[in-house]
């Protein structure tokens, strides 16, 4: 019975509606304490004309006046709606930058600065056509520490992590639905000289289309095969992906990765004999081309001269400007990278197309 309330002070039951509207019954005035006859009295009170009249009056009043804290509830609702609209715009900016792999932050954390980074720049651009966001930035854009704005780098990082977790969970769900998968692992130093191990999984969706997804970066896991094995197995376990369903693995031709006895592929093969190893075709082709060229003295000499020619012009801005003025083709000389064999094709192609300009320079 929702209309009843109990008073610990008077140790009695009261009818809310009758009490509020000045009823004359015992439940409205002094309270009810006859616990042995409680069911009989309450049943009679519920069907009384006075109670029904005051109950209807209470319902009508609540519909017109609302709750006693209606103004506070309305204010809270408006406040929640306000911040929801702010976060919608913030998330749009974060998704736009993250989906294109662009940097978020600059050297400044203030709106209006030319060095405040892409995140704040996008919000400023949106604000030019959005009075709501423009007003918010003007009032809360540079509030200082401890002030709520949802525009700070802290909020940005939190949403990046939340979105990243959502994307990873979606990828893991697809992998678990596909059941069988292959892994591709490689490492490279980033701009801060931290070695980052990239972890990629390849699987086939229900419609038969092959999918290749980047799953995570693992910093500083080491280069020994046992360290790499621990990193790979721990990564799969953290996403609850069964290594027993792995059907392929592909790495470069380094001994710690491709070693037939103690390489990463051999270690994972012992955990799962069905995880066949396929060397990276692009890396293998690159090694074949590089090693074949190094075996021929004339070829090695040619590429040495080609690299020296590029270095000669690139080492001086004056010589490079002279080459640029004489080059009829917009494709300038290219560096012959010793690691990436395809760069040698680019270097040869640029020299052939600018041969006359190079001679004239």
Structure description:
This is Zinc finger MYM-type protein 1. It holds the Pfam family DUF4371. Residues 75-263 form the DUF4371 domain. It comes from Camponotus floridanus (Florida carpenter ant). With 361 residues, the protein is an alpha/beta fold. It has 4 domains: 4-63, no CATH class; 74-151, no CATH class; 178-279, Nucleotidyltransferase, domain 5, CATH 3.30.420.40; 293-360, no CATH class. It has helices at 16-20, 38-46, 49-65, 70-99, 117-127, 131-140, 153-178, 225-238, 255-258, 264-271, 281-294, 297-314, 317-326, 342-353, 355-360; strands at 4-7, 12-15, 181-189, 195-204, 210-219, 246-250, 276-277. The protein has a 5-stranded mixed β-sheet with strand order 5-4-3-6-7. Helix 4 packs across helix 5, helix 4 crosses helix 7 and helix 5 packs across helix 6. The model has no long low-confidence stretch (mean pLDDT 85).
Number of domains: 4
As laid out across the biggest beta sheet, the strand order is 5-4-3-6-7
Total number of β-strand segments?
7
In helices, the fraction of residues equals 40-55%
Task: Give the class from helix and strand content and strand pairing.
Answer: alpha/beta
CATH 4th-level superfamily of the largest domain: ATPase, nucleotide binding domain
User: What name does the CATH topology of the largest domain carry?
Assistant: Nucleotidyltransferase, domain 5
Distance N to C terminus: 99 Å
- Backbone CA Rg: 36 Å
Give the CATH class of the largest domain: Alpha Beta
Return the average pLDDT rounded to an integer: 85
> Which regions contain 5 or more consecutive residues with pLDDT less than 50?
none
Number of helices: 15
Largest sheet: 5 strands, mixed
Order of helices and strands: EEHHHHHHHEEEHEHHEHHHHH
Q: What percentage of the residues does DSSP assign to strands (E)?
A: 5-15%
Task: Give the name of the CATH architecture of the largest domain.
Answer: 2-Layer Sandwich
Sum up the overall morphology in one term: elongated
């Amino acid at each position: 019975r929702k209309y009843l309330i109990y008073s610990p002070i008077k140790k009695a039951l009261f009818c809310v509606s009758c009490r509020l509207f000045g009823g004359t019954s015992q439940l409205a005035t002094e309270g009810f304490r006859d616990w042995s006859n409680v069911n009989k009295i309450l049943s009679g009170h519920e069907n009384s004309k006075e109670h029904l009249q005051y109950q209807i009056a209470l319902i009508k009043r609540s519909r017109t006046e609302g709750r006693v804290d209606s103004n506070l509830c309305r204010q809270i609702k408006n406040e929640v709606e306000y911040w929801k609209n702010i976060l919608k715009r913030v998330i749009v900016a974060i998704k736009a930058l993250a989906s294109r792999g662009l940097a978020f932050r600059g050297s400044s954390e203030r709106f209006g600065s030319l060095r405040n980074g892409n995140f704040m720049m996008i919000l400023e651009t949106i604000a030019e056509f959005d009075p709501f966001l423009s007003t918010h930035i003007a009032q809360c854009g540079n509030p200082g520490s401890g002030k709520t704005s949802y525009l700070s780098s802290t909020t940005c990082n939190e949403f990046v992590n939340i979105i990243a977790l959502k994307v990873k969970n979606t990828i893991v769900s697809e992998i678990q639905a596909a059941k069988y998968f292959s892994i591709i692992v490689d490492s490279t130093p980033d701009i801060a000289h931290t070695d980052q191990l990239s972890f990629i999984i390849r699987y086939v969706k229900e419609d038969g289309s092959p999918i290749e997804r980047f799953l995570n970066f693992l910093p500083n896991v080491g280069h020994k095969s046992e360290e790499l094995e621990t990193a790979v197995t721990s990564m799969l376990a953290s996403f609850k992906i069964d290594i027993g369903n792995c059907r392929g693995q592909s790495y470069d031709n380094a001994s710690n990765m491709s070693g037939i006895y103690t390489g990463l592929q051999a270690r994972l093969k012992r955990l799962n004999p069905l995880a066949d190893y396929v060397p990276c075709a692009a890396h293998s082709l690159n090694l074949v081309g590089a090693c074949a060229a190094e075996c021929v003295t004339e070829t090695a000499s040619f590429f040495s001269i080609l690299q020296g020619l590029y270095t000669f012009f690139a080492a001086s801005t004056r010589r490079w400007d002279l080459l640029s003025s004489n080059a009829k083709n917009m494709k300038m000389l290219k560096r012959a990278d010793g690691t990436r064999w395809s760069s040698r094709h680019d270097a040869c192609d640029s020299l052939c197309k600018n041969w006359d300009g190079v001679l004239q320079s």
